[in-house]
Design brief:
about 5% strand, mainly alpha
Length: about 100
């Protein structure tokens, strides 16, 4: 929700949406994405990993989500993937350039 709210704010600042449109889109997000995952229980392990890896917490929240769902986080961020190489978390991350749809 935070990421989408930030994108809507940027679009508003760029003049592509007005405030009412941004608010409308944000309110309808929960309807369109019924399976949103709460990050409350993911923040503490993400914070620990962000500190250990010296990396922004946002990516680590996505990593914790992938871990929780036993899924792959597909990313174009080679620097992030390189930081995870050789760690227990590496198995959850796939570079976009190497991703093959199943």
């Amino acid at each position: 929700m935070t990421e989408v709210a930030n994108a809507l704010a940027r679009k508003t600042m760029q003049g592509l949406l007005d405030r009412q449109e941004a608010a409308f889109h944000f309110r309808t997000l929960a309807i369109m994405l019924a399976d949103l995952i709460s990050v409350d229980d993911l923040i503490e392990p993400a914070l620990s990993n962000a500190c250990a890896l010296r990396h922004p917490i946002y990516d680590l929240i996505y990593l914790e989500t992938a871990r929780k769902l036993d899924a792959h986080l597909v990313t174009a961020d080679r620097r992030f993937a390189a930081k995870l190489a050789g760690t227990e978390h590496a198995r959850y991350v796939t570079l976009l350039s190497e991703w093959q749809p199943s």
